[in-house]
Every structure is written in structure tokens, then in C-alpha cells.
Write a structure and sequence with these properties.
There is one protein chain. By secondary structure, the protein is an all-alpha fold. It contains six helices and no strands.
């Protein structure tokens, strides 16, 4: 997956020569180093059935509040999207800076209690807004 700000994509599409087309229906094989096999980083690109079921449920009825959204996510087995964090874990997000310390989160990631992208995003956001 490649991401870029929408303004940059629009400017590139307008100014660059070549044919642009969607590749959203293409799948690319990903290989991991042996040392990463238990890191559950496949969450960055795999969309499992729990996420699809959660999405379908949201599409059929939009939650009225944030807490309702979180409750539905947990009911559908997507607890890792909106994890419950202890006070100590919240302090880790603040103290770790832009790059989270993986060893702090490894157990929760392997248990499906928190998604790697949640930690990565939270640490970057916290770092930006300090």
C-alpha cells in the first residue's frame, strides 16, 4: 500500500504523463522475514471476515455515538481497533515518541487485543501534537 496526501495525488494525476488506473482488485504476495512471523503485521494489509462483518453492520445502521461504535466493534470481534488501555499503556504512547517500543505491545498484539497500526498511529499522533 502506498499512501500520500490527496492534494499530492490530485496534482500528480493532473501533471504527470501516463495511464493511471485502479489496482484495488489486485493482490500482491507479501513475504516476511522469519523474525517477523509472529509480529502479526499482516494486519496492515489483510482484511479478515470480522472486519468485513463489522463494516457491513455499520453500513446497515450508523452508530449514534462513539461509545456505541466501540461497543459494536467489540461485539464483532474487532476489539483491536478500539482497545482498552491502562493508564500505564497510555503513558507508553506518550513516552515512546514517534516510534513505539514493540516489546511493550507484543503480547496484546498476539492476543488480538490491540492492532499494530493502532499503536503506530497513536504514537505518531501523540508525537505530532505534543
Amino acid at each position: 500500500m502506498f499512501t500520500m496526501p490527496p492534494k499530492v495525488a490530485a496534482a500528480g494525476h493532473k501533471e504527470l504523463k501516463g495511464k493511471f488506473f485502479s489496482r484495488t482488485h489486485e493482490n500482491y504476495d507479501v513475504s516476511l522475514f522469519e523474525s517477523a512471523k509472529d509480529a502479526h503485521i499482516e494486519k496492515f494489509w489483510d482484511v479478515d471476515n470480522k472486519v468485513l462483518k463489522f463494516s457491513e453492520r455499520l453500513a446497515s445502521k450508523i452508530p449514534a455515538s462513539g461509545p456505541e461504535l466501540i461497543h459494536i466493534a467489540h461485539e464483532e470481534g474487532c476489539e483491536d481497533m478500539f482497545p482498552s488501555l491502562t493508564k500505564e499503556e497510555k503513558s507508553f504512547i506518550t513516552s515512546d515518541g514517534k516510534i513505539p517500543v514493540h516489546s511493550r505491545w507484543e503480547k496484546k498484539i498476539s492476543e488480538g487485543k490491540i492492532a499494530p497500526e493502532y499503536i503506530a498511529y497513536s504514537c505518531r499522533t501523540c508525537f505530532i501534537y505534543r
